[in-house]
Amino acid sequence: RDTLLQVLCLSAFLSLPHARAEPIRYSVAEEGESGSVVANVAEDAGLAPAQLSARRARLASEDGRQHFRLDRGTGRLVVAERLDREELCGQSATCTLPFELLLANPLQFFRVEVAVEDINDHSPAFPEEQVTFKILETSNPGSRFPLEGARDLDVGSNSIQAYSIAPRNEYFSVSFGSRSEGDKYVELVLEKPLDREEEAEVGFSLIAVDGGSPPRSGTTQIRIVVLDVNDNAPVFTQKLYVGQVLENAAEGSVVLSVVATDRDAGPNGEVSYQFSQAVGQSHSSFAIDAVTGEIRLTKPLDFEAAENHELSVRATDGGGLSAMCKVLVEVVDVNDNAPEVVVSSFSSPLPENALPGTVVALFTVRDRDAGANGKISCALEDQLLFSLRPAYKNYYELVTVSTLDREETARYTLAVTAADAGSPPLTTTQTFTVDISDVNDNVPVFNQTSYTMYVRENNVPTVLVGAVSASDADEGPNAKVTYSLAPAHPAERPPCSCISVNSENGQVFVLRPLDYEQVRQIEVLVSASDAGTPPLSANVTVRLVVVDENDNAPLVLYPSQDSSPASSELVPKSSEAGYLVTKVVAVDADSGQNSWLSYHLLRATDPGLFAVGAQSGEVRLRRPVTERDAVKQKLVVLVRDNGQPPLSATAALSALLLNDFSDVHLPHSSLATEDEGAFIARKVCKSKELKGGHVLYGTGNLQSGLADAAAAGTLPHAYCYEISLTTGSGNSEFKFLKPILPSLPPQHSGMGRGTGDEQEFSRGPVTMEDVAPDSPGTLSAEQFNSLSFN
Asked: Which residues form the Cadherin domain (predicted)?
């Protein structure tokens, strides 16, 4: 509740320019009961009662005392405690209690002054119940005898208005009034000479009556002792003595001395001094020497409690005559009070986005000393982000002067020093600890600009592959980071369904198995959002790299392994070592070392005849062909990848060892025991003259040979052949046969060419598209007839 009141006070003074110039003034009689209604201040201020609660209205006074309270429901100003005008204002002619009505949202305040009206609640009181006068019987009529008048704590018409004597007598009357100095006096006036022999003492009552309704009165008894001749009363050298004393003067210090003389001699001329008993107790701090009239301190004085003390001194001679004088002791202020800082309102924590000029605290300063000792200056120590701003009278505002950043400084300790102008000056330091509350002004920041994670293909579902991490410089909910998959680019595409991100810790999971051969890399956007209002977020790219596993065996492309029967390679028996028989071509769908292939001769009819290039797959003669070698050679080549563990495939192929091309007309049984045919080609030429004795082999025989070869299925589908025939080849020998593999490097197609008087016929490369796709591994007769030879 105190914090709320402080905030209201602060808000009020933020709108000082909207304060009402003239105060709202009321009056109330003293001694009213608590809860007594003074007035409807809301109505006089032009405010609806509903505004008082909505705008958190409150009353604030400079001294912090709450004499009145505000009924927010009705807008009435009521008495909070019993008001004693004499306690509040003493004998002052007027008694005004000022305070402020403060409202917030928007800030507004009204000055209010309530005059406490005096009621006649005090009776006049004399300082003594009985006063004795010793009067010479020789006193002349008209002689005046001063009295200490009665005191009435009330003021105005309720103060003392008249004095009277009861019962009335013929000797004395009472006279009262005011002198030019403003002092009131009361005197007994001798109306008739006294005669001690007739009446030695005279007694009566002196009554003081005030002007209240009904009036109040006070009484003292007057006793007149008639003396013999002493016709000179003491006389003071001054009617008013004024002295000054420092408030820190030590006990026993001399203030001043009063002096009275008496023209009489003897005991009638001896003067003694004493304080006249008064209603006030000022004399209790002083003592007077009865003989010398020297006035001294009996205890230390306090300027802040009383700035001056008024004393009455009576000088009495030995004959009983007396005189009175006034002594005014002025207390000189000493700088013995440090300034006071009274905080009206204080706002903490303060949001970090508070604008420059935001009021953090409102406080007032005061010093009980006077003059320069009570003049106060305020300073804020070593601060660049805050400053002090005078507000109203002795109020100051502690305000921000620039933007705040909680992430840089979360708490400020501000020291406000109030110093007076005394010598030496006294200071008071008020410390304000301002906590800065967080505002969501920081975007989450990932610890990497991008992430690359790896997962092996054929992974198990929901496998953890890594984590992203982002931090937020804010605190509390503003710093709580959650993770999610952001929409991909373009925005219409949904996020990848195979990846999931844990919203709490940023762990990344792959939800289903991946196939390296289908997808090698996936990129997603991961968003990190805080829990602020509104939330702030940042995105980062996560690249998921699929790591290849050796899950694909090599695939043999050539020779094709799906033809039945398998094709045969033709090898002249005259071939030398290193002769290229064929090339095994294989691929592996994996990558890296999992796709590195090596070729090995697994089995062969004659293992010593052939060698396989481990890296190239080329099948070559290890040595020259001999007559002892079987015509039909079978080989199985193992193709193995470099994975762990390695996977492999086999390629089965056969080769025919021929003396020359005429061997293609050998009966099938002479070439092979299985259902395999020999290679037969047909020479097709353009219409042109034959030269050099070159002749064409009979077309009928060649035609029938091609048909047989096609039927036997011995033509590999990815080859074309160059055939050279010699003149006079009555037995239709093929002198030279060369397979050409268009999709392989040139060295794979060389088998040697004819020499001497041989006529060479050739054609360009033939690809898989040149033959029917439904005849894998072989050329049909129709396909072969369609070839043209140049």
From this structure: 20-126, 127-236, 237-341, 342-446, 447-556, 571-669
